[in-house]
Task: inverse folding
């Protein structure tokens, strides 16, 4: 659905890969986690805690909280505000987070 | 020009409840709502329907509040039938947490005074063990709580929307962006004059919260209300862990957790500050230590509408009969009786007689 706008959109070879639900997702340095996931066609990101509907990023600027995912074991992370790093383990956010 | 039976000036919870109640009782009502430059206590409140301890020392106010609490189930049922969304009203009972034996003693005193004043409400004291059975995540600093099954909570924004939509669905008029600059008493009623037009009606109710103080004098009323700031902090959505209303922490149907609220004298400044937010967060983390890891997503300040004694004003103007003052700071808790009793009563042109002790004359200086 999304394509990169850079002229040379070939991803650099090397270690810039994170993992989403067990699958490798390559990214360019500076990508947010949300951008990397969208470019890789990964959707949905989460299920709404209110009605279980499937959701994906909307505002991409930290306001709408639609892009929540679990990153390296931490739930409810705003993937549009998180810079992608090699080796990140990213999972869908299922409903509201748990405490403790 | 269309002449209404009742003009309601102020589209907050008080005015909207009144307008819906009067319209559904058969009056032709117009609700004038200033706009987002207004102070809008209805958009910033915590959402408690809270009865335990309310009106202690003032039996008339206590009885009126308890009556409001008992009317909430019928009110919520009628609203639920009127609109296609859930206003989030739940009545699981309310807990007021105590972080010291002294606080617990104060709650015992509230119970004794409530009983002495004839308050028909069951409030019990829970010790730490009782509380741990109810809420396994409760913090070690909490020595106990008082509990009443009459307390509940609601989504105040959905409540406001339901009342305004219900008013319009019942044939009433809602006029947003209408700031009333002046009220003229006319031969057969009143004219509310705004910048872009005017509205006439047989009767008029001033429910404009903090904006009512200056309007009241136009029709011989006195509404000496002042702002009191409360700040609220909101966390991310969390799986349900708090199935009760409480005095300082409220988990919404959607999962966010509201931490409230402060009581500050800051004039008309409805801003926020970090020390106050930190105090609210610290208290919440003492009550539920697991909340310390929750992420805060927003906070806001809002202004309560306070009379000198904190009780409501319900009054008809003696100089201009048909003009009414209605104001209070418990717009959520009292919404049931404002909608089901005062609205229909104003549709008939009068206030309920049993509310005669709530006139503003109680604030007059008595010469001795």
Result:
């Amino acid at each position: 659905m999304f394509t990169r706008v850079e002229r040379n959109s070939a991803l650099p070879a090397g270690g810039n890969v994170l993992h989403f639900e067990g699958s490798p997702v390559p990214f360019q340095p500076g990508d947010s986690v949300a951008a990397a996931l969208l470019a890789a066609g990964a959707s949905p990101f989460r299920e709404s805690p209110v009605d279980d509907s499937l959701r994906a990023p909307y505002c991409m600027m930290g306001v709408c909280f639609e892009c929540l995912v679990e990153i390296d074991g931490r739930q409810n992370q705003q993937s549009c505000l998180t810079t992608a790093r090699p080796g990140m383990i990213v999972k869908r956010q299922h409903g509201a987070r748990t405490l403790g | 020009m269309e002449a209404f039976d009742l003009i309601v000036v102020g589209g907050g919870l008080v005015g909207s409840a009144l307008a819906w109640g009067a319209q559904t009782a058969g009056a032709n009502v117009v609700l004038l709502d200033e706009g987002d430059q207004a102070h809008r206590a209805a958009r910033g409140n915590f959402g408690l329907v809270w009865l335990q301890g309310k009106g202690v020392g003032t039996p008339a106010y206590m009885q009126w509040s308890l009556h409001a609490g008992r009317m909430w189930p019928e009110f919520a049922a009628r609203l639920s039938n009127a609109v296609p969304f859930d206003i989030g009203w739940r009545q699981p009972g309310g807990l007021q947490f105590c972080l010291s034996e002294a606080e617990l003693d104060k709650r015992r005193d509230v119970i004794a005074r409530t009983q002495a004043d004839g308050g028909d409400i069951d409030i019990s004291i829970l010790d730490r063990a009782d509380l741990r059975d109810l809420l396994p995540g409760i913090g070690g600093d909490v020595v106990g709580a008082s509990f009443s099954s009459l307390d509940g909570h609601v989504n105040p924004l959905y409540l406001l929307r339901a009342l305004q939509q219900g008013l319009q669905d019942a044939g009433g008029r809602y006029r947003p962006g209408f700031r009333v600059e002046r009220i003229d008493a006319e031969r057969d009623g009143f004219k509310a004059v705004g910048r872009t037009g005017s509205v006439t009606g047989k009767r008029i109710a001033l429910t404009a919260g903090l904006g009512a103080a200056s309007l009241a004098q136009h029709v011989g009323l006195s509404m000496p209300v002042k702002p009191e700031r409360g700040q609220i902090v909101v966390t991310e959505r969390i799986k349900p862990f708090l199935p009760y209303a409480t005095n300082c922490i409220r988990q919404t149907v959607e999962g966010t957790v509201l931490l409230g609220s402060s009581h500050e004298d800051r004039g008309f400044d409805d801003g926020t500050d970090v020390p106050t937010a930190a105090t609210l967060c610290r208290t919440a983390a003492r009550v539920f230590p697991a909340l310390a890891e929750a992420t805060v997503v927003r906070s806001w300040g809002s202004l309560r509408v306070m009379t000198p004694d904190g009780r409501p004003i319900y009054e008809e103007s003696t100089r201009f009969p048909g003009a009414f003052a209605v104001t209070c700071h418990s717009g959520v808790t009292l919404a049931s009786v404002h909608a089901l009793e005062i609205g229909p009563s104003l549709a008939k042109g009068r206030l309920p007689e049993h509310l005669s002790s709530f006139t503003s004359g109680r604030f007059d200086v008595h010469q001795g």
User: Anything to note?
Assistant: Chain B has a mean pLDDT of 96. Chain B has three domains: 3-48+157-224+308-363, 94-148, 226-306.
